[in-house]
Amino acid sequence: MHETVKKELFEQIIRLRPTLPPKKRRVADFMMEDYKRLFLMSAKEIAQKCQVSEPTITRFVMDLGFGGYMEFEQYLKGLLRIELTSVERLIKASRETENVSTLEAYRQNTIMNLENMMQSVSAREIRNLAQMIHAAQSVLVAGYKASATLAYYFGYLLKKIKERVIIDTTYSWENLDTISLHGKSLLVFAIAFPRYPQRIIELVEYTKKYNSTVVCISDSMKSPVVNLSDHYVIIDMEGFSFVDPFSHIMTFLGALIHEIAYIDKEATARRLSQIEVGARRRRDFYTTEQEAAQEYDPLKRDYFNHSNV
């Protein structure tokens, strides 16, 4: 899909080029020569490089069918996020943080991502996804490379409230065997963000051979995993560095766990209580002597009844 979209853009430029005046032709040639550099440059810098005015750049992208340069930039971002290397992202970040502290830049980026997520993901979408995961006999949560952190976070919490949950962050043969054995009774929760690891694509393709249900979380309809999935949630991920901005994705996954937990809150309370008792017996966490001496029976209190809080 990605190569098709890129090819369509190039073909459109090639078709237009013979009819363009000299200034626009210089812009077309520059875009064809090194289109990846466009993502690292402003419209003003492109205009200077091509020795034309900024309005010429805007008129050229409108000739390509875009509403303006901003729309073209968004299109290009979706195209290039698959290809930009860590070094290229670092170069872009150095330009964007010149007039603001790094911490403030990341704060602004996080807020923007959270606001975009709230606009694109509905409460109904989360509820439907929660019901699907809750009803599944077995769940395999998969994510590789940077997305492995998201897979472990979600899988770790899901294990606390649901039985038969497997976390896959390494593309292991054991988990491939699980897919082969469980087939239709298995739900695969695939997390795929740029740059999309080839292994996650292979895992989803393998899963489809055994008729397992695939749910994917990704950043764009252009994601190579989306068209392979039975269900998907799109959460845009705006970043300006090679460091993946996952704060808003973690927020979404936390909300999803909450929704799953409350589908059968009594069963969730019992399961969490059993886990807590075991953790206290093993002394997994730090406690004061006073807390350790107290008898612990979490089921004596209804933690889901907010009047008791």
Description:
This protein has 309 residues and is of the alpha/beta class. It folds into three domains: 2-80, Arc Repressor Mutant, subunit A (Orthogonal Bundle); 117-261, 3-Layer(aba) Sandwich (Rossmann fold); 265-308, no CATH class. Helix content is 57%, strand content 8%. The protein is built from 14 helices and five strands. The protein has helices at residues 2-16, 22-33, 43-50, 54-63, 69-80, 86-96, 102-120, 123-135, 147-161, 173-182, 198-209, 247-261, 265-282, 289-293, and strands at residues 138-142, 165-168, 186-192, 213-218, 231-234. The protein has a five-stranded parallel β-sheet with strand order 2-1-3-4-5. Helix 9 (147-161) links the parallel strand 1 and strand 2 (165-168). Helix 9 (147-161) runs parallel beside helix 12 (247-261). It starts with a helix and ends in a 16-residue tail after the last helix.
